[in-house]
Amino acid sequence: xxxxxxxxxxxxxxxxxxxxxxxxxxxxxxxxxxxxxxxxxxxxxxxxxxxxxxxxxxxxxxxxxxxxxxxxxxxxxxxxxxxxxxxxxxxxxxxxxxxxxxxxxxxxxxxxxxxxxxxxxxxxxxxxxxxxxxxxxxxxxxxxxxxxxxxxxxxxxxxxxxxxxxxxxxxxxxxxxxxxxxxxxxxxxxxxxxxxxxxxxxxxxxxxxxxxxxxxxxxxxxxxxxxxxxxxxxxxxxxxxxxxxxxxxxxxxxxxxxxxxxxxxxxxxxxxxxxxxxxxxxxxxxxxxxxxxxxxxxxxxxxxxxxxxxxxxxxxxxxxxxxxxxxxxxxxxxxxxxxxxxxxxxxxxxxxxxxxxxxxxxxxxxxxxx
Length: 370
Hints:
Layout: H1 7-20, E1 24-28, H2 31-41, E2 49-52, H3 62-66, E3 70-73, H4 85-91, E4 96-99, H5 111-121, E5 124-125, E6 136-137, E7 140-141, E8 149-152, E9 166-170, H6 173-182, H7 212-221, H8 225-243, E10 249-250, E11 258-259, E12 265-269, H9 278-287, E13 292-293, H10 304-307, H11 331-339, E14 340-343, H12 351-368
Parallel strand pairs: 2-3, 2-4, 4-5
Antiparallel strand pairs: 1-9, 6-7, 6-11, 8-9, 10-12, 12-14, 13-14
Helix pairs in contact: 1-7, 2-6, 8-12
């Protein structure tokens, strides 16, 4: 994306924007960078608060600190594990500037409620779609509701640009122009290769450019993205059908009117029915060669960086609010973090592989059931 040489990345952006139903798509080097670009475009800065969920990867929240703003954690919905609109309402102060709803594991957040809250309080919304390419809320793809939105293309995501990558989407021309400059050292837009003076920087920026090789891989992935999503949904449907028959395990919840794209498939344990805790259950699944893991952090605020406030964001010279990360800040997130685990459903896995997963779940559940 250096001046006009990067025709492959431009075509990747055009293709992604068209596929997602967005006016603009701006590629970059990671999903974390995409969130940073979005925050900067919206003017989030020192002294501002940004409402975030506790159940997310730290890359959702680190960019808030990059802008010297303060993250405020709002609890999650017990079924979707996404940020709760009621918790958002309770977290708003006079310093709140933005909300970052995360479509966890490809389950869309309640965007009608979130956008209504944002309009009422004059707040910005940045959708974190890192795990949710192609997910739909009431027939519309995620990444089209917020003011500026972010996708990740890291190598575990629904599509990848080989190792890492990201994309910003927006329907706003000014935000789009800002992001294109911000990712490229603040270079002025529209410079031609034949111009004599090209080192013009109207604003501060970062080196967040995507390489042309990454863009070429991403462009090819666009040919397959709908098939990737179809396979994930087929695998998830198989798991849902059979896990509901396993006593003590609850299948992943897909809200009415939503299309989930299943970055992973979360299973909830009814712990009172088992003799072991979640971690031991997962270890047993791993021993059965099942692709199982704990999944995304449920209580990000327990990380030392937040507990000890190890960033300039909390400097009392710039932040006049009061925010605490001590104890159980979000009780629903705490509970979810004790009783859930994730299963892999990504291609090339098939429903035949899911049958083996279900057999292992039944075996382990039977061995550990009270």
